[in-house]
User: What shape does this take?
Amino acid sequence: MRKLTFKGGIHPDDSKSATNRVPIKTVIPPELMYYPMQQHIGAPLNILVSVGDAVKMGQKIADSDAYVCAPLHSAVSGTVKKIEPCLTPSGIKAMTIVIENDGLDTKEEPINTKSLSELSPEEIVKLVREAGIVGMGGAGFPTHVKLSPPPDKKITHVIVNGAECEPYLTSDHRVMLENPDEVISGLLAIMKIFSLDEAYIGIEENKPDAIEMITKIASGYKGIHVLTLKKKYPQGAEKQLIYAVTGKEVPSGGLPMDVGCLVTNVDTVTEISRVVNKGIPLMSRVVTVSGGAVAKPANFRVRIGTPFSYVIEQAGGFVCEPKKIIMGGPMMGIAGISLDVPVLKGTSGILAFDEKQATVRAESNCLRCGKCVSVCPMNLVPSQLGIYANKMDIEKCEEYNLMDCIECGSCSYICPAQRHLVQAIRWGKTQILAKRTKEKAKKEDKK
Amino acid sequence: MENLMTVSSSPHIRTNETTGSIMRDVLIALVPALFCSIVFFGLRSLYIVAITVGACVGFEYLWQKITKKPVTISDGTAAVTGVLLAMNVPVTAPWWMMVIGSFVAIIIAKQLYGGVGHNFVNPALAGRAFLLASWPVLMTRWGMPFSTGFSISTDLVSSATPLAILKGTQEGQLPSFIDMFIGNMGGCLGETSASALILGGAYLVIRKVISPRIPLCFIGTVAALSFIFSNGDLSAAQSVLYNILSGGLMLGAIFMATDYVTSPITAKGQVIMGIGCGVITFVIRKFGGYPEGVSYAILIMNIATPLIDKYCRPKKFGAVKKEAV
Assistant: This one.
């Protein structure tokens, strides 16, 4: 069978062997848990508790009226100790609820007691929102928003993203191996929302055991297709995955729903399964801890709010001084400045790089070798974009479709001159957005 | 803070490939051709290569020192230019000419335009074109295989190249195709052995240093045109073989037209580059004043490269009309 894939892309060393055979270990939460009000894209949350309040495990501690937003729950029972600005993994400070864990795990009432067959599509979507479920692959877009497309957009393809194309990360891989039932039952809930008889689970070929396991479980259900994807980065990028599975290109500037698709991460569907079947909101996630500075790389089920430093301790601490801390994978993850930050809903991995891995080589002149052009999954010309963005030539940036860049990092990875292309392109994006905001304001002034 | 973290924009992993490693591959790919030239033209080949490489690297170093720029001779680009320049001159060329050619290549064609990545024509070809225009006699005094000693006697009889014989500008016996394939004929130092050049080209393709697009389109176009417009007393097949095995075509198509800096970066552009080079080469060979046109063809297409790149941008992913589903 032809392996499904997209055009372009790179083949980095996947560095997954350190953790892909390590079963998920549940981490007992520490004494203090941290809940920043900015967990993901969307509006910051409003705090629902005050200092001194007793909270239960699973109790909603923050929410917002904004639509693109998901509530936050305490993953432990205990007392609200402090509410103060704290550092988050992305390097900014956000108002944070600090909860002192009493270690009792006194549970809040389940938010759902009905079974899937009793729930209406609207009720499922509402549950997903109440459970605070967001895209757990990293971006953290609130899932209930994705599940409520406008009436003119009909969803025909639901795709579970089990590609996990980021090197080092193995959390989705382990979830598919260890909790395949949850993956399938979460998917069934989504299929019910859109009254679909068919759905797809795409898994990269480097996870044959996961493909086998999921295929075995899925064979008990009609219409769930498990697809083997070619091992290539960024196979798990939303638009590339949709292209591989359906052959459709999401239009420039559009969303997956424009081609009738909905893509959801493995961990996200398991969370949907948990709220539907057990009534528990999103309180934990699987995190891969790896990198050259980590003593015993492993996969952990970590409660949201656990500090990175504590998670690292569970992995045996450091073998050498870490020189770079990354939240997420090495291709798109964010480099942090400190380990004193909490695990968020989107923290798929914590990587600690040793000195050699953290070394950033100096840029040299672009050779025009064209490698960035051939690997760009969006068919852009990254070398030119880099030049125009650095020159702040906004018009040229727009002409060369800078805004279509998905920031996958393939161009920077492949560049023999070590050009920081994605960095330049990100800078270009902020320039274009600033210009657009300005023009919009001008237009409104005239009115 | 006792332990400062490195904070940089993603991606946090990079390929091991560098400009230096690519240039090392190009140099490795040139070894067979260099070896052949030593076999056929003697040790003087090595002497020429040593002069041009030394001069090119030396000029680059001096320029960067004088202009207080970071010295980048370790990236190997100047060394590659040096070897390619040597490959493009006859083995009889005097040392001072090599130094001048290196100066034109490195200082005028490359550094004055901003150094590596900014030159608009291939430096080695610019050097060669300058030498050919300035000392046409010295630049076409070909060494005869197995006859060139280390020192060049002034009364050396230059051998005719197959192209010159075909064109009728020189008298002589056309070499056999086997001799042409292995390189046993008159010509520039590195251009005569098609087999050695193809071997080097295959290495570059396998190592993914170059794409085969430009060489295949270039050579293919010349082959097709010489098939259509075959020389009067040659069969079409003979005409094709003489045209693709002689002159600087293999060297130019594999090592010069594929120069990253001066060739298009997109796949479509590279096809146009190859075809364009092939057409111009053939037109010069067939109708022009010179017997050989590869260098000028590549130089002309070098100049057209920015234009080609401008009009050959790949169609972006998702450049479809928003369809109503």
